[in-house]
Amino acid sequence: MVAVAAAVGLGGNVWLLAQESRRRVRTGRHNTRALRWLAVTCTFVVLGTLVVARPWYWDLVVAAGVLASLGGVLGCLRALWRRPRPARWTSLVVAAVAVLSGVVLLVLAGVAAVLDGVALSGDEPVPAYHGGGVLAQPVVYQLFWGPSWLRPQPRPALREAVAFARSLASSHWAAAIVSAGFGVSSVTSGGCWVDVTPVRRVGRPITTMASGAFPAEIKAALTGRHRLVPCPGSTDVVPPRSLPPGALVALWLPTDVPYRLGGVAAHGVVAWPGRPAGLPATGLPGAYADWGLANCAHEPSCAALPAYAAPTYALSHEVVETITDPYGRGWFADPPLAWTARYVLAHGPPSLFGVPPVYQGEVSDLCQPGEPTARGRRLIGRDGPGGTPVSPFFRPGRGCGT
Q1: Which end of the chain is more exposed for a tag (fewer CB within 10 A), N or C?
Q2: Same domain for 157 and 97?
Q3: Which domain range does residue 206 map to?
Q4: Integer Cα distance of 142 and 144 in angstroms
């Protein structure tokens, strides 16, 4: 029905425009004037949008298409009114080209206007529960991979991680997770350990948690095949013999193994016997070994870490996201329309039809600097007065906080 109505409408406009030019109907050239002004107005709308849109090469393509369509409209209208008047069938063809070129401009302007209006809207992302699993009683195990974390002395990141684990059960940050309404009743530490078994040459960057060196290290360390020692300053004595249902393993990579899991840190699951959904895990880069030391500025991987993302900030960021969305379909926000419109404006027309963009909508992602909810503010939490840095996270009905 829509197609029929559109065809009738377009056909009627073509007929009216052709008859008007041949003075078969007396309209005072209103149809011609309306099409001309519509074409010019649509062109300005699209070109105005291209001022803020990216990337530049798509700006050139769209601008060329718009200007060509405008030229087609204006050229055809001039041809219709040029003396001597075109023949009947010629005028119908020229009128059809003018109307179709105007339709192209109208469609482009309509899309541009919608994107502009939505991009300027103020809607904010709101996390919601999507029906998947949540770790109701998470127990956080930290594992430092490789003896280099202890040489020539325990690294500052290791000491901060120990302080984070030691205060976790009674921390304000953990209490905020429990009271947020995610369905979590407690957050505790299961211990902190250093795998002092010499690291075999990995040979390539760590790019996935699902296979390869990452899950192999967790299995070797937690099944007794590698030698573990307690993190300096921790009260842990015996490595875990078994893992509770809410276990979450944070693996700090070796200092010399490139990290390519995405972002500052990442979380996912690794295959584990007796756990069909897998064992929730977090991966943190070995670049944190030099964090806080003078040589960090001279180590590209360490210097590339954001200034706000202290080791415990990155750790707590991934921990709370793993707790609330361990297997997918947990707590996260769907892309707001404003973010989607800005994404399309930034990536060009193909993003309208390609694979949906990846939106970092988990509870900590929403509150990190640069994200829509954070509005560019550096939201860095402290676990109590003077405590260790922790990541803020979005609590339903309360917004970002720690």
Answers
A1: N
A2: no
A3: 131-358+388-401
A4: 7
73 residue type, one letter: V
Rounded CA Rg of the chain: 30
Residue 279 and residue 140 in one domain: yes
Do 14 and 72 reside in the same domain of the chain? yes
38 and 14 together in one domain: yes
Helix ranges (H only) for 22-170 are: 30-50, 56-81, 88-119, 156-166
Same domain? 191 vs 160: yes
Residues 19 and 155 in one domain: no
* Mean pLDDT on 369-379: 48
Q: Per-residue pLDDT for 7 more than 80? A: no
Q: Does pLDDT of 356 surpass 80?
A: no
pLDDT at 163 over 50: yes
Q: Rounded to an integer, what distance in angstroms lies between the CA atom of residue 223 and that of residue 269?
A: 17
Residue type (1 letter), 394:
F
Q: How sure is the predictor about 270, in pLDDT bands with cuts at 50, 70 and 90?
A: very high
Contact between residue 104 and residue 62 where contact means Cβ atoms under 8 Å apart: no
How does pLDDT run across 89-131, given as a tens digit for each residue?
Answer: 888 898 899 999 999 999 999 999 999 999 888 777 888 999 9
Burial class (CB in 10 A: 0-12, 13-18, 19+), 76: buried
